[in-house]
Design brief:
single chain; mainly beta; 1 helix; 6 strands; globular
């Protein structure tokens, strides 16, 4: 493994995105890894194309909460790709299970 590779964990499936005072049912593909340089867990992924989400986040990078069947976490929605999917990123405990809980700090 090179120094830039990470053991990634993740989640793919249904979730609820809480953004701009709304709860939206969404489909997500998420990944994450512990970054030893800053001592934090970085999670990220894509939210499937969603018309209502596009209407809510035009030209902004709103903070949001992403809830899956196993947890929830605060993140930021950004970067719509050519297929209409939005990027979501967060730091700290992710909204999915991780194998080694010792690498993830407790929820703030």
């Amino acid at each position: 493994m090179s120094e830039h590779e990470h053991d990634e964990e993740g989640y793919q499936g249904s979730a609820t995105l809480l953004v701009a005072g709304r709860e939206l049912p969404v489909e997500v593909r998420l990944r994450g890894h512990f970054e030893p340089i800053d001592g934090r867990y970085h999670w990220y992924g894509r939210i499937a194309a969603h018309t209502e989400l596009t209407d809510l986040v035009q030209r902004s990078r709103p903070e949001a909460t992403l809830r899956t069947p196993v947890g929830e976490a605060a993140g930021e929605v950004s970067d719509q790709d050519p297929w209409g999917r939005y990027r979501i990123t967060g730091l700290g405990r992710p909204p999915f299970e991780v194998d080694d809980v010792n690498t993830v700090p407790p929820a703030e």
